[in-house]
Amino acid sequence: MIAIGTKGHLEQVVTDDVCADKIGSGLVKVFATPMMIALIERTCNESVLAQLEAGQGTVGTMVNVTHCAATPVGMKVWCDSELVEVDRRRLLFKVAAYDECGLIGEGTHERFVIDSEKFQQKAYNKKS
What structural domains and CATH numbers belong to the chain? Predict the structure, then answer.
């Protein structure tokens, strides 16, 4: 059973390759919203890995966040997550992203616990 209250924390430095102008989500050299969302997903996923059974993983199914402040290249950003709800295989996280000046984004992220092999096979079967 995955414990409500499980917390996660990941950090990274903003580099050119995670900026809006490089990934195509905008024209400016600031931390891109899709990259903030990727940081959120990684933080939540990694926070529960140790509590999963062998062969299980999690997949993201919903992200509901605001991106309220820009972060330039060279600044550190981080995400803090907390698991606030568990409903069978459904996990709901409260998330917040920060840079060295304060809050840059917040919201919720939903993930589902999956059997990794079965999930992968179902995806491959779409090609047949």
Answer: 7-125 (3.10.129.10)
